[in-house]
Amino acid sequence: MMKKNLLLVCFLLGSQIMVAQKKYQELTKEDYLEDFDLLVNIIERQHPNPYRFTSKEYFEEKVQNLRQDLEQNPSYAQFLLSSPLSYINDAHAGLTTDLIFFEDFSKQAHFFPFSTIVYNNKVYINQFGQLIPHGAVLQQVNGREVSDLLESIQISSDGSIEAINSKDFSLYCSFIFSEEPYYDITYKIREQDQQEFQVRIKASDYSQSYYNSQKSILPIDLISYAYGIYGRELTPDTYCLTIKTFGFSEEYAYQKLSEFFAELNQKGIKNLVIDIRANGGGLLSNIALYYSFISKEKTFTNNYRYAAKVIDVQVRENLVDSNGRQLSDMDIKNMDNFMFQRYDYDQEKDYYFGNSRLDESYVENYPRDRNAFEGDVILLIDNNTVSAAAYFASLFKQNQRGIIVGQETRTCSNFTTASWFLNYKLPNTQTIVNLPRSEVFFNQQIDAIEQCSGVLPDYQVSDAMFVQSLKQVQDPDIELVLEILEKKKIQSKVIDSQ
User: Fold this and answer.
1) Where are the beta strands (DSSP E) in 271-392?
2) Are the beta carbons of 92 and 436 closer than 8 angstroms?
3) pLDDT at 31 over 90
4) Which bin fits 350, alpha (ψ -120 to 50), beta or left (φ > 0)?
5) How far apart are CA 5 and CA 12, in angstroms?
6) Which terminus of the chain, N or C, has fewer Cβ atoms within 10 Å?
7) What is the pTM of this model?
8) Residue range 312-321, pLDDT digits in tens
9) How many CA atoms lie within 13 A of 343 on its CB side?
10) Residue 415 DSSP one-character state
């Protein structure tokens, strides 16, 4: 699926097909508020450390404001917009809607009529059409400034990372204006233009909105979403390896990587681009395996450690498994036993830390692979590079393996959550609350991290280059990479001639 549609994918593919206790149309204000209060209780009692990046007072203030918004507008769209999960600054905490509820909602909601893409606080039309040209930059929607709408869209990210470019403007606009039959849109052909254009367009139904999302111009490299790991030639001396997930088994990943890197070495390829944009992570234990194919050192340090403030199940009600089945007391006891066997309590720090049983495949001094690539490597990252993918980017940067192009990762460069998840089914909206069970530190120093940044790029595409690539149906990051490599080639020729 496409980067801009990640939230929508979560809603559709991650949902469980179940018979709801109430129909979508029968939900009352009390139903929405009951689920909201339960969601807040789950966050406060069950998250491994909800106040690492925020204060309890700040979180409660935001919760109060969100609850008031829901009281004033008790609707399904407002319930989704009122999720307090983003205010604990955890990229892994999220909601998954019930398929039946969302289908009923989608049949009545009025969706934004265009596919869009967000880049550096600007929203661009991301599809071909006759009413508004592709690449046009939006200024207002239904009388509200686009900048104001973007600011109101809350997404989950670690620490202080903003990750603006991961916001799905079209989807959130559809929630904000779900009852509006028309969209009044003000736009410019180019950002620097003085002239603005206005158009009134009838809202789309969900089927048309979904069609629009599938016809988006960016991202270009859709084939990699189908394969997960996909290699291709960019130029005769430059290859690109796209990795959309690190969730493959070690055996499958090693086979794919071995074949790819053996081919690179056989052909004498000079440059390699590794693309982990929109990579949602996967198996943390496998990240060192992937990096071993580009390591210049015979062994490299592979450091990460698990920790948590809460390891047992504190909230037992409404807990379900990945198939939506209500967990029994024995199920919960087994889950607790699993955690107690793998975490040791540190009384001085009042914290639980993972022991050697937690990751039996952990290798701290990891060896380079025999097919390791010796040439130059460029790494592509973006605001949707999260979890274990951010650890790969962190290893890449720590070892100074090459330059990084793109956007800041949505997961911290030295910390994240995940490992296992608890799933709670809210009784009225049937929404699933997904909470990670553990924190993960990308080093051996467990400290009181209060803020963090993601892995930062060395080069980022300018607004002008982004718009030009969008209009010419090109991948802007790849275009920047090719430009960097061409400049390097010219400089190399100048040096050789001296």
Assistant:
1) 271-275, 299-301, 305-308, 319-320, 343-346, 351-354, 365-367, 376-381
2) yes
3) yes
4) left
5) 11
6) C
7) 0.93
8) 999 999 999 9
9) 27
10) E
